[in-house]
Amino acid sequence: MIPPQFDYHAPGSLEEALALLGELDDAKVMSGGQSLLPMLKLRLATPANIVDIGRIPGLDSITESGGSLRIGALVTETALEENATVAERYPILLDTAKVIADPLVRNRATICGNVAHGDPANDHPATMLALRAQMVATGPKGERTIGVDDFFHGLFMTSLDPGEILTEIRIPAPGERSGGAYLKLERKVGDYAVAGVAVQLELDKNGKVTRAGIGLTNLGFAPIRASAAEKALTGATLLEQRGFKGAIARVRGIFSGGLDADEVIAAAAQAAADATDPVADRRGSVEYKRNMARVLTARAIRQALSRAGG
Ligand SMILES: Cc1cc2nc3c(=O)[nH]c(=O)nc-3n(C[C@H](O)[C@H](O)[C@H](O)COP(=O)(O)OP(=O)(O)OC[C@H]3O[C@@H](n4cnc5c(N)ncnc54)[C@H](O)[C@@H]3O)c2cc1C
Q1: Which of 76, 107, 160, 273 is surrounded by the fewest CB atoms within 10 Å?
Q2: String of b and e for 52-73 (b: at least 16 CB within 10 Å)?
């Protein structure tokens, strides 16, 4: 299929790109083009102008500084997969990148484009919710930072203004005892998710969850934060303590009517499923998708725990 006609602009700097977005009518930013070009071909988008930011130098770095991992606008899925810091300290990002499309798409598709697209079927938004990421938008008035909870507004809708470029994603550096995982059920390798679940946990030294982040993919009209599931996990001791301390904790749990770790995980997984609002389609019925959300949440929590404790 051939896209509709548009004027193509390839600015050489961020300033030039912002100026073009300010002066052109009906312009769209393009990064890797892996979502925008299919949208053009399907006539789901028909912008008069495309501002291709893909050649702007200096936007493709991944750095860890100031307590955050900073992912520049032009960092591709492949670059993320090949980054040693990401592999070592942010395995949930690696889980996510690896299950997106195929290597050809991942060579061009950017993380910022994936998030800026605002598609609830895309995989990174759920992971960014779990990680409590910050979005850095640069526009004519300079830079502003948007918390991920204020970023997604609905189907293909984000809080980016038309003249703004998502120039960086900042992810808080993980605490000493933290771990995350992203699990995706897909019909075949490279497909969009039937359901996807991102979980990031932070534990104290006794194995108690001090912070939980859970995001859901393709289970509603926007990426979903499973707040009730996060609440169900926070404060619970999920990693078994060994020896005398562990025995005392278990006895205390029995007498206080407290839930054991398996029950807490089951309750959180059910709460995540209850937060979904899926639609029936070729990928499955509403009931099937809800149940998959429950199953994947429980699995992702266990994997996050094992990474946090390991
Ligand atoms: C065959 C195929 C399979 C796919 N499978 C998956 C999958 O399994 N999971 C998944 O998550 N995605 C999948 N995708 C979608 C695609 O990989 C992502 O949406 C992609 O990461 C988008 O990034 P991009 O750089 O290509 O963005 P583009 O296509 O260039 O842009 C996408 C949208 O975001 C806007 N945009 C892009 N960058 C910025 C920016 N820096 N600032 C402001 N706005 C911006 C554009 O204006 C456009 O509206 C698939 C795509 C294809 C072609």
Answers
A1: 107
A2: bbbebeebeebeeeeebbbbbb
CATH number at residue 214: 3.30.390.50
Q: pLDDT value at position 309?
A: 86
Give me the long-range contacts of 107-110 (CB less than 8 A, separation at least 24). Answer: 107/76, 107/77, 107/78, 108/32, 108/33, 108/34, 108/76, 109/32, 109/34, 109/35, 109/76, 109/77, 110/31, 110/32, 110/73, 110/74, 110/75, 110/76, 110/77
| Residue 143 is assigned to a structural domain of this protein | yes
In the predicted model, what is the mean pLDDT of residues 30-46?
A: 95
57: in domain? no
List the residue whose alpha carbon is closest to atom 36 of ligand 1.
113
Q: Confirm or reject: Cβ of 110 under 6 Å from ligand 1.
A: yes
Q: Which residue has the tokens 């809800």?
A: 290
Total of domains in the chain? 3
pTM for this prediction: 0.95
**Arithmetic mean of pLDDT, 183-204:** 96
Helix 91-98 vs helix 124-131: angle between axes, to the nearest 10 degrees?
170
| 114 alpha carbon – ligand 1 mean position (Å) | 4
Torsion, Cα of 52, 58, 63, 67 (10° steps): -90
The model's pLDDT over 249-278, given as tens digits with 9 standing for 90+, comes to: 555 555 555 778 999 999 999 999 999 999
Nearest CA to ligand 1 atom 2: 101
Residue 208: the pLDDT is 94
